[in-house]
Amino acid sequence: MNQIPDIKPHTTAMLVGPAAALMFGVFVLPFLFLLVLSFWSQVPGSLQFDTYLTVLNYARIFGDSYYLGGLWTTLWLSGLVTVICLLLAMPLARWIVLRAGPAKGLLIGLSILPLVCGALLPTLGLVNLLSPLGFINGALKSLGLIQSSLPLLGNITGVAIGLVQAFLPLMILPLITTMERLPQEYEKAAMSLGARRLVVWQRIILPLLLPGIVAGSLLVFCASLTAFVTPQVLGQGKVVTFASLAYQQAALVLDWPFASALAIVMLIFLGLAGMLGALVTRKFGKAS
Amino acid sequence: MKRIACYAAVAAVGLFPCLPASAQDFSGHTLTVGTWGGDIERLLREHVAGPLEAKTGAKVEFLLGGSGDRLSKMAAERNNPTMDVTFQNIYEAPLALKDGLVAAPDAAAVPNAADVWPGMNEGCYAMSLVGLGIAYSKSLFPEPPEWADLWQPEFKGMMAYAPYPSSEGDGMLAVAARVAGADEHNPDAAFAKLAELGAPKLTYSSLDEVLSLMDSGEIAAAPMISGYVISNLENYEGIGFVFPQDPGPVLVRDMVCQVANSPEPELAQMFIDLALSVETQAAYAKELNFGPTNSKVELSESEAANVINTPEEVASLLQMDWPYVIAQRSAWTDRWNKEIMGQ
């Protein structure tokens, strides 16, 4: 039943070729250029490159506490957003899978809405909600709950709210997919053998959900690490993330080699996150 | 030159009639123009793109965004440009010309360029004159402030800035240096003085964002470029805008450039010519408070009040050493991030 049909080598080439050629042309080649560019430098006061190879861009990143601070902020902010997304998405996904019934399709559609809206418009909408004169502060003030505005913009709180709003679907979707494949008999069997709810979660549900959790966490972490519109707008220049630094260098300072080096450092951390995810799946996936 | 060559060819071959450029049919051609969105795009559609399309049969497409994006695009497409006309700012234009990304201004190809005030077509064609002044909250400043008034201790931490690097940020550094008795060639003085204002309350990504906070007094003041701010003030009773005297407002000029080796050079020149025309320039002044560069534009007294429109006014403006500032850009960005943003 699961037999792979006999595919001849030239058929394989024809099947894989178009996508491979596209990826090579629009991703691999520009990526290699990005890598080379990060070892060049910008001629001061000009848009020309000095193509003499140098590690100065990297030395500048790792030798300056400002850039290291930005890197650290970005990493822990992305981690925080991942954890919040996981905590919010887990009950929601379980409820949608088990209890939503005929509304399931609609609810999944609603929960992925932020993904199809783009980043800018929802973020600008959040400014109106979160600003000192915005809806949330206004409502709390008129209810007499607060005296002066809560600072919800221009700090980590605001940026985290924006990122969770934008990337929650990336956590919900993989969780729903894995939960749907989770046989409910396992839970029932465990409980009939006397396991309490907590133990069922700990020993049955979580290990089986692990691939979904890892996939969702990786997606949210990587998306938060590279997001720049949301930190830029909601951080009001006061939350320095690596992506907004790269944007500043690429689009405003026009120092492309330095911006490339920032991007490469970010890519290295994305790669490390991926490796960590694979490691977690292998270790704990097997243990279950 | 081209037309002479064409007549010569006709004389020799006697085949095709040579029509003057204005009657030429460009149907099927597309002119790509990079500019800022909003009011500027609207005015350009109305006064420049519309008439050009009617006259030539060509189609004008706008590419909207920031001028830095356009400079990057030109540099990336150096060998195969897709944009024909681009709007840049006062310091980007000479930089683009130096790097061979734009064609040098040519009054023979763009007749209206001859009517631009002398000396302003630096790098590209001068499109409009604006100055960096102060937008301020009237509840905090009963009288229009001078630059030095921003340094009163009660306003510390209540400024708003545009993202750096920008002409607003560099202009403000030049002002701070002068308030400290130096100029922009002394960055230590400039940064130290500007840092005294405290980290800004807001780095704004849209004008509405900063103006509504200023209207309510949460933000005291912001260095802003005249033009849209002034045209936006009618929506905000609590905000004023002033051109300070000491030093005068910092001159910022919008430039319109013909991209070097672009696909549609003739249409590009016609577009720029219409952009520099008396009619377009007057509309910019009346609707957006952008000062005309065309010396033939005449404005009524009330129209001229908020607009920089004479060489004498320009002379009273603070002119910065932009090539020097550009060369410092990378170092100043690091200093701005650390010393002004306090990070």
Summarize the structure.
Chain A is an all-alpha fold and 288 residues long.
Task: Tell me what you see in this structure.
The complex is a heterodimer of chains A (288) and B (343). Chain A is an all-alpha fold and 288 residues long. Chain A has a domain at 56-116 and 153-287: MetI-like (MetI-like fold, Orthogonal Bundle). Chain A contains 13 helices and two strands; from the N terminus they run αββαααααααααααα. A two-stranded antiparallel sheet of chain A has the order 1-2. In chain A, helix 3 packs across helix 8 (156-180) and helix 3 crosses helix 10. Chain A starts with 8 loop residues before the first helix and ends with a helix. The model of chain A has no long low-confidence stretch (mean pLDDT 90). Chain B folds into two domains: 19-128 and 253-309, D-Maltodextrin-Binding Protein, domain 2; 130-251 and 318-340, Periplasmic binding protein-like II (D-Maltodextrin-Binding Protein, domain 2). Helices cover 38% and strands 17% of the residues of chain B. In chain B, the strands form two sheets. In chain B, strands 1, 2, 3, 4, 5, 8, 9, 10 and 11 form a nine-stranded mixed β-sheet that branches. A two-stranded parallel sheet of chain B has the order 6-7. In chain B, helix 2 links the parallel strand 1 (30-35) and strand 2 (59-64). The longest helix of chain B has 18 residues, at 39-56. The radius of gyration of chain B is 22 Å and the shape is globular. The termini of chain B are far apart. Mean pLDDT of chain B is 90; it is low at 1-22. The interface between A and B is large, with 31 and 40 residues.
Count of strand segments of chain A:
2
Estimate the mean pLDDT confidence of chain B.
Answer: 90
The backbone outline of chain A, from C-alpha atoms, is: globular
Count of separate DSSP helical elements of chain B: 14
Tell me roughly what share of residues is in helical segments of chain A. Answer: over 70%
Question: What is the fold named in CATH at topology level of the domain at 56-116 and 153-287 in chain A?
Answer: MetI-like fold
Identify the overall geometry of chain B: globular
Biggest sheet details of chain B: 9 strands, mixed
Let me know the largest β-sheet of chain A: 2 strands, antiparallel
Overall structural class of chain B, as computed from helix and strand content, comes to: alpha/beta
